Amino acid sequence: MKDFYDQLAPFYHLIYEDWKAAIAWQAEYLKNIIQTEWGAPAKSVLDVSCGIGTQSLGLAERGFQVTASDLSPGAVARAQKEAESRNLRISFSVCDMRQLYSHHGGGFDVIISAGNSIPHLLSDSEILLALKEMFACLRPGGGCILTIRQYDQEARGKGILKPFGVREECDRRYVIFQVWDFEGEQYAFSMYFIEEDKRSGAIETHVMRSRYYAISPDHLLELMEQAGFDEVKRLDDDLSYPATLVGTKKNN
Ligand SMILES: C[S@@+](CC[C@H](N)C(=O)[O-])C[C@H]1O[C@@H](n2cnc3c(N)ncnc32)[C@H](O)[C@@H]1O
Q1: Of 71, 82, 96, 249, which has the most beta carbons under 10 Å away?
Q2: Mind listing the pLDDT tens digit for each residue in 86-118?
Q3: Which whole number is the average pLDDT over 222-239?
Q4: CA 144 to CA 245: how far, in whole Å?
Q5: Can you state the percent helix, strand and coil of the chain, rounding each to 5?
Q6: Distance 198 CA to ligand 1 centre (A)
Q7: Does the pLDDT of residue 36 top 80, yes or no?
Q8: What is the arithmetic mean of pLDDT over 72-81?
Q9: What is the Cα–Cα distance from 150 to 189, expressed in whole angstroms?
Q10: Of 39, 69, 16, 14, nearest to 242 (Cα)?
Q11: Using the 8-state DSSP alphabet, how is residue 206 labeled?
């Protein structure tokens, strides 16, 4: 899994039709949730699966004090470069979200794990472990936001094609898609980037493989409750958004 994201880091922005626009809309979406759920004083954010920075960069641009970590050193290195090129101060490090508290300590206002990261943990017990670590890192009264694919809407099966689109960058064209193979509630997937040099016509195919647990949003809400969160709820009511789950660490 770490290797998957290390290999993916240089291409990751291409998954989005417009990564810069995604950084902006996701930050506005998250900021709005933070202010509605936990009030304007919430300032410190711990992003526990920052990847190349899709959520961290936009939140830092909007004045949040962002601490960000991820399991993939390649993704973290790219996120760091992206922050430097935007003159943003974000504290980055490599950390497994199942070991957050010993690495980051406590006291954060908000914890996020966005962009379908949690389902890389392949069982309820692994997810519960990570959720308990997030809970420990929060200050009382703080909250957690998780975004995942709407797996309650996804068909199961083998050889399922998921097109991401065609992107043009410099002299290159990329055709991007995934193929999913379900085994029970988990699926193995291959991510393909077919890269064409438009001047020479040379083609190179990059393929990376990983695995997800297609946990339903309702079941993830149950696990959040088991981890100690209060007022757990699902906020998205629109298929164009990821499933967005929040929970609060009650004031003592
Ligand atoms: C689909 S990417 C999302 C990245 C970023 N949040 C975004 O939306 O662009 C999933 C991320 O989860 C990270 N990840 C997976 N398992 C992890 C773990 N156990 N601890 C920390 N990060 C993890 C991966 O390295 C990857 O960067």
Answers
A1: 249
A2: 999 999 999 999 999 999 999 999 999 999 999
A3: 92
A4: 8
A5: 35, 35, 30
A6: 32
A7: yes
A8: 97
A9: 17
A10: 16
A11: E
Which residue type occupies 202?
A: A
d(CA 108, CA 143): 9
Which of 122, 107, 109, 98 shows the shortest CA–CA distance to 227?
98
Taking the C-alpha atoms of residue 45 and residue 64, their distance in angstroms, rounded to an integer, is: 7
How much distance in Å is there from the Cα of 153 to the middle of ligand 1?
22
Cβ-count burial of 18 within 10 angstroms (0-12 exposed, 13-18 middle, 19+ buried)?
exposed
165-183: pLDDT as tens digits: 999 999 999 999 999 999 9
- Give the integer Cα–Cα distance in Å for 189 and 167: 21
Q: 51 CB less than 6 Å from ligand 1?
A: yes
| 3-state SS, residue 52 | coil
Residues making up the chain, counted from first to last: 252
Contact criterion met (CB below 8 Å) for 46 and 108: yes
- The upper half-sphere exposure of residue 7, i.e. CA atoms within 13 Å in the direction of its Cβ, equals 14
Amino acid letter at 221? L
pLDDT at residue 252, rounded to an integer? 76
Residues with Cβ < 8 Å from 191, sequence gap 6 or more?
4, 8, 176, 177, 178, 207, 208, 209, 210
Q: Which two tokens stand for residue 219?
A: 């079941």
